[in-house]
Design brief:
The chain is an alpha+beta fold. Among the domains are: 238 residues, 2-Layer Sandwich (Uridine Diphospho-n-acetylenolpyruvylglucosamine Reductase, domain 3), CATH 3.30.465; 68 residues, DNA polymerase, domain 1 (Orthogonal Bundle). The protein is 30% helix and 19% strand. The protein is built from 16 helices and 19 strands. The strands form five sheets. A five-stranded antiparallel β-sheet has the order 4-5-10-6-7. A five-stranded mixed β-sheet has the order 16-15-19-17-18, sandwiched between helices. Strands 11-12-13-14 form a four-stranded antiparallel β-sheet. Helix 9 packs antiparallel against helix 10 and helix 14 crosses helix 16. The protein is globular.
Length: 482
């Protein structure tokens, strides 16, 4: 899929490589979209990846003196969910990140990547547009800042040049008289591409009841994210009565230009724009919307946020050798160019417990722990393992004792065909480390990226609750947790 893989340790080094090798080079952080595009031949001519995950400081979320929030190009959707700053001052982005993929996918997928993929169905673009975001693009020779509203030129097309890197996402922090939220319609609860999504940000007048300003953005209903301009204008100077909300929702439909596709017809999308705009406005009219995202969502990090391990040497990674610690053992691999971490583990390390189910990050069968976080190994380049600490299902056994999750899966008969089991076990191990007393909803969210084609979820959920009890030194889960 790719021929060369570089791992710079500074932005300047990354930009020099990009300038030298553009347009056949691409920056990669999460790579959850890029790897699939390369696999499907949708990026012809691209044969060089520049991995920025070892560059310090690119995963920060900060607030400057002018009231702008800055999000680095390595910030993942799970880091957004974990950010108190974003929950307080940019909630629509948090709400949208909660809708992205699954916990293991969100541990790799970045907000910057979501922006750059440039699909009108991507979840975080609509709230960023409603919040008034801007992006900073830098090359080896220059730097420019572009409002997100001017960044897109069409479906999967942007103003970004091949030798530019997105180095910053900035949004004005919401003030005390502002509230916003996000709504998404998908064909399932997790791992779903939007049929329609809607982001709303309202500014209230001093009386706290009249809308002073409104931003309503619509996704998956036009070639790019669009503002519902007529609805925005209508809301200004009005109170959110049921009649006003209904009319604003009706007006929002006028900005939609949907198409028929496999996820829904144009007529259905128009109707859902009205429904979901109304629901978002109703939620904001009722007051606080923070409860829409769990206070402690499952991130599958364990006890501490994951951090990439430093490279063994401070230089670009040589493409002919990968040195990684896997299940406590240092292993050296060669001839793994163009392969995924899943391929490396199965074909080179001969650790076949990790399974390939879909190869597209949709099923969770290939879940492993990378530098402390659960990730989907089919969407991680093998070269990312260089200098990393990796745990597979084989590595959960310690001193010949099964991990509590493994023990509970055996005891509670949480296995049918067994193919999905390693992925469930790896996700559940991080879940109970992070949530020692998980309720049923937390377990469901934590395992939302893992599919059991035998539909054995009841036993699996029971086993995870049992495993949490075992990890706490108890024999069985408490009432209501099984």
């Amino acid at each position: 899929m790719w021929r060369l893989y570089f791992t710079p340790t500074t932005i300047d080094e990354a930009l020099t490589l990009l300038d030298r090798d553009a347009p056949r080079a691409r920056i990669i952080a999460g790579g959850t979209d890029l790897l699939l595009e390369l696999e499907r031949g949708q990026r012809p001519g691209v044969d060089t990846l520049i991995d920025i995950t070892r560059i310090p400081g690119l995963d920060r979320i900060t607030l400057d003196d002018q009231g702008w929030i800055h999000i680095g190009p390595r910030v993942t959707h799970n880091q957004v969910l974990a950010s108190d700053l974003l929950r307080d001052r940019a909630f629509p982005l948090v709400r949208a990140s909660w809708e992205v993929g699954s916990p293991a996918l969100r541990n790799r997928a970045t907000v910057a990547g979501n922006i750059l993929t440039a699909s009108p169905a991507n979840d975080t673009i609509a709230p960023l547009m409603a919040l008034g975001a801007r992006v900073t693009l830098r090359s080896a020779h220059s730097q420019r800042t572009v409002p997100l509203a001017e960044f897109y030129t069409g479906v999967r097309r942007t103003v970004m040049q091949p030798n530019e890197m997105l180095v910053d996402i900035a949004i004005p922090a919401l003030g005390p008289r502002q509230r916003g939220t996000f709504r998404k319609l998908g064909l399932r609860k997790a791992q779903a591409i939007a049929v329609v999504n809607v982001a709303v940000v309202l500014t209230w007048a001093e009386d706290g009841e009249t809308v002073e300003d409104a931003a309503i953005t619509l996704g998956a209903v036009a070639p790019t994210i669009v503002h519902a301009t007529e609805a925005e204008a209508y809301l200004r100077g009005r109170r959110l009565t049921p009649e006003v909300i209904a009319e604003a929702a009706r007006l929002a439909v006028r900005s939609a230009r949907p198409i028929d596709d496999i996820r829904g017809s144009a007529a259905y999308r128009r109707r859902m724009v009205e429904v979901y705009t109304r629901r978002a406005l109703q939620a904001l009219a009722q007051g606080d919307v923070s409860h829409e995202v769990p206070a402690r969502p499952p991130l599958l990090w364990g006890q501490t946020p994951p951090q990439p391990r430093p490279l063994p040497v401070s230089a670009s990674h040589p493409p002919d050798e990968i040195v990684a610690r896997i299940n406590g053992r240092v292993m050296v691999f060669r001839d793994a160019e163009g392969k995924t971490l899943l391929d490396l583990l199965r074909d080179h390390a001969l650790l076949t417990g990790t399974k390939e189910g879909c190869g597209e990050g949709e099923c969770g069968a290939c879940t492993v722990h990378l530098d402390g976080a659960a990730v989907l190994s089919c969407l991680v380049p093998a070269a990312r393992a260089h200098g990393a600490d990796i745990v597979t299902v084989e590595g959960l056994v310690q001193a010949e004792h099964l991990h509590p999750v493994q023990e509970a899966f055996v005891h509670d008969h949480a296995v049918q065909c067994g193919y999905c089991t390693p992925g469930f076990v790896m996700a559940a191990a991080k879940l109970i480390e992070e949530h020692p007393h998980p309720d049923r909803e937390t377990i469901a969210h934590g395992l939302s990226g893992n599919l059991c084609r035998c539909t054995g979820y009841y036993k699996i959920f029971d086993a995870v609750a049992h495993a949490a009890a075992l990890a706490r030194g108890e024999d069985a889960p408490h009432e209501g947790q099984a």
